[in-house]
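Translate structure to sequence.
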C-alpha cells in the first residue's frame, strides 16, 4: 500500500529526466555538426603556360607633315587676279595655283625691249666707228686720243646693251612669276591668297604638304632609344582610328639626333603609309599612340583575371592539396591579349585560381569546380 505512490512518482521523475536529456543532447549534436569546415567559394584553377609574347615599346606623339612647302609671292606690287586652288586640293608639280595681273609687267617689258633695241643700234654704230679707227691706227689720220674714244664708245655701247638685256630678262621673269606654281606634288594645307589683294614680294600665299606624306613623331625615353632601329615596323593608332580597327603600319625613318634635356625624351620619326581613301582621316597635328615591334619571345603567362592587384602589388592564389589558397606575390611583365606574363612567384606545375581570385584572402578554403584550359 505504501510503495504504489512512490512507484508512480519514480515513473514521473524518470520520464522528465529523459525528456530533459533529449532536449540537451540533440541541439548539442547539431552545433557540433556546424563546426565542420566548409568551402566559402567555388573557383576554377589554371596553370601557367609558355606563350609567345610580342616585345613592344609603347609611345605617344603627334602626326606631322613629312615636309611642308611654303609658297610665296616671287613678285611684288602686283594685284592678285585669280586663285585657282583651295585648302584640301591635291595639286601636281608645276600646276598653276594663282595668277597676278600682268598689265604693268607687260608695259615695263615693252619699254625695256625698246631700250634694248636702241642699245643694240648704238652698239652697231659704235662697232663700225671702232673698226674704222682700228684700220686708220697706223696711217696717222686719227690721233691716238680719237682712236681711244671710238674704242671706248664701243665698249660703253656693249655694256649698255647688256644692261638693257638684263632688264628685259628681269621683266620676263616677273611675267613668269606672275603665275604661282606648285613646287611639288602634294595637298594644299593653308591658303592666304585673296583675289584683288596687292601683296609685297615674299608674302606667303599657300602652304602645302609635300607628296601628301605624313609622319608620326613619337617621344621615347632615353632607356628605350637603344632598342629602336631604323626600318623597324611600328603600329600607329591615330586619335581618329575607330575602336577595334587595325592599326596603321609605319616604319622608323629617322631617330632624332638629340634628347630633350628637360623631359629626357627623344623624337623618333616614323613614316606613315599613304591613305588614298582617307579612312581613317589622319591629319597633321593629330595625337597618336603607337607600338614599336621589337620581336617575340617566350614567357610564362596566366589569364589576367588570375592576377589580383592589392596595395600596389600583384598577387595570385595557389591552391594546395587541402583546398586552401595561399596568397603569393608575383612580378608581372608584358601583356599578350587576355594573358599576362609572370616573371617570378609561379611555376608551370602549380594550380592557380582563375575565376573568383578577386574575392579570396589568404588561407581561404575553396571548392575547385574545374581546371581551366590555357587560352
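Result:
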Amino acid at each position: 500500500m505504501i510503495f504504489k505512490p512512490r512507484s508512480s512518482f519514480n515513473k514521473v521523475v524518470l520520464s522528465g529526466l529523459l525528456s530533459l536529456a533529449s532536449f540537451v543532447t540533440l541541439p548539442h549534436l547539431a552545433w557540433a555538426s556546424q563546426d565542420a569546415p566548409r568551402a566559402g567559394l567555388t573557383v576554377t584553377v589554371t596553370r601557367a603556360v609558355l606563350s609567345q609574347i610580342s616585345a613592344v615599346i609603347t609611345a605617344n606623339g603627334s602626326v606631322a607633315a613629312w615636309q611642308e612647302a611654303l609658297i610665296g609671292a616671287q613678285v611684288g606690287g602686283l594685284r592678285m587676279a585669280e586663285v585657282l586652288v583651295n585648302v584640301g586640293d591635291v595639286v601636281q608639280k608645276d600646276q598653276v595655283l594663282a595668277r597676278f595681273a600682268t598689265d604693268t609687267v607687260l608695259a615695263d617689258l615693252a619699254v625695256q625691249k625698246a631700250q634694248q633695241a636702241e642699245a643694240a643700234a648704238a652698239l652697231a654704230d659704235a662697232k663700225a666707228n671702232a673698226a674704222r679707227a682700228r684700220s686708220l691706227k697706223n696711217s696717222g689720220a686719227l690721233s691716238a686720243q680719237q682712236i681711244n674714244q671710238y674704242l671706248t664708245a664701243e665698249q660703253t655701247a656693249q655694256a649698255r646693251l647688256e644692261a638693257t638685256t638684263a632688264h628685259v630678262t628681269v621683266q620676263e621673269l616677273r611675267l613668269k612669276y606672275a603665275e604661282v606654281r606648285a613646287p611639288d606634288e602634294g595637298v594644299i594645307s593653308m591658303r592666304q591668297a585673296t583675289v584683288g589683294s596687292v601683296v609685297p614680294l615674299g608674302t606667303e600665299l599657300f602652304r602645302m604638304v609635300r607628296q601628301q606624306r605624313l609622319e608620326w613623331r613619337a617621344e621615347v625615353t632615353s632607356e628605350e632609344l637603344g632598342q629602336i632601329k631604323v626600318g623597324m615596323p611600328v603600329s600607329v593608332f591615330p586619335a581618329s582610328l575607330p575602336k577595334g580597327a587595325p592599326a596603321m603600319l609605319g616604319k622608323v625613318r629617322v631617330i632624332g639626333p638629340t634628347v630633350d634635356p628637360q623631359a629626357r625624351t627623344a623624337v623618333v620619326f616614323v613614316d606613315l603609309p599613304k591613305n588614298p581613301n582617307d579612312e581613317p582621316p589622319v591629319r597633321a597635328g593629330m595625337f597618336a599612340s603607337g607600338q614599336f615591334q621589337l620581336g617575340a619571345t617566350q614567357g610564362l603567362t596566366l589569364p589576367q583575371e588570375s592576377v589580383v592587384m592589392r596595395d600596389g602589388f600583384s598577387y595570385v592564389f595557389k591552391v594546395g592539396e587541402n583546398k586552401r589558397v595561399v596568397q603569393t606575390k608575383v612580378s608581372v611583365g608584358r601583356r599578350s591579349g587576355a594573358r599576362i606574363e609572370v616573371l617570378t612567384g609561379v611555376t608551370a606545375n602549380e594550380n592557380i585560381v582563375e575565376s573568383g581570385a578577386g574575392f579570396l584572402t589568404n588561407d581561404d578554403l575553396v571548392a575547385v569546380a574545374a581546371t581551366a584550359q590555357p587560352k
